[in-house]
Amino acid sequence: MIAIDGLNLNYGERIVLRNLCFRLGEGELVILQGRSGSGKSTLLKLLYREIPHFYGSILLDGTCIKTMPKHVIRRKLGVIFQSFELLERKTALENVALAGEVTGMPAKEIASRAEALLDRVGLTGQENSYPHELSGGEQQRVAIARALLNRPKILLADEPTGNLDGETAADMLSLLKTLQDETGMAMLLVTHADLLASMPEARLISMENGRIVER
Ligand SMILES: Nc1ncnc2c1ncn2[C@@H]1O[C@H](COP(=O)(O)OP(=O)(O)OP(=O)(O)O)[C@@H](O)[C@H]1O
Ligand SMILES: [Mg+2]
Prior knowledge:
The protein is an alpha/beta fold. It has one domain (2-89, 152-214): 3-Layer(aba) Sandwich (Rossmann fold), CATH 3.40.50. Helix content is 33%, strand content 27%. It contains 6 helices and 10 strands. The chain has helices at residues 40-47, 70-76, 92-101, 107-120, 136-148, 166-183, and strands at residues 2-11, 14-24, 29-33, 55-60, 63-64, 77-81, 154-158, 186-190, 203-208, 211-214. Helix 4 (107-120) crosses helix 5 (136-148). The protein is globular.
């Protein structure tokens, strides 16, 4: 699903990624760890093309991401973040729907999928709530529903439990795991060691000196 070879990225003088290679297979669950500042978020940003310029090769489903329009990448990749990144002036349902609007999905399909996904993540009845009316865990559920709207083959998650308390964080990881099993999507998850017990089958990797190391 993802094949990265010879990936190099600098911020000015600072070398962040150094000849990095990585493979993510279909339906695979990979957990990425590494020191703060080691380049984990940078790698994810490169994958969903928030950072457009880099040296090396990134293939998504066999196609070079440099030649893929952004809406095509959005269909293949779902993304969730520590900070949820919901739009404050939109309801839960509208936030989820947005993911389909940017990829050109028909309105009817957006509406039915968004409703079903909010149901699936346990937010029935809260479709019309605004982000400030939801708890952190509920906001992250909206963000998960939004990430899944396009039925991506890959879900990227950058410390998705970083703003949640321990119990809510564990619930969130188990929800992600269940959704991964249900959909068969691959998942690349940046998260901390103390939550890993709930995902014993995951492949563990870490970012060291700008490269990916298997653990
Ligand atoms: N836009 C930017 N401009 C300059 N330097 C940056 C920029 N973004 C990140 N960096 C630097 O690149 C390095 C890697 O940052 P990155 O955010 O990828 O780390 P991380 O592994 O995700 O860390 P954390 O665990 O704290 O989230 C850091 O040294 C950071 O200061
Ligand atoms: Mg980070």
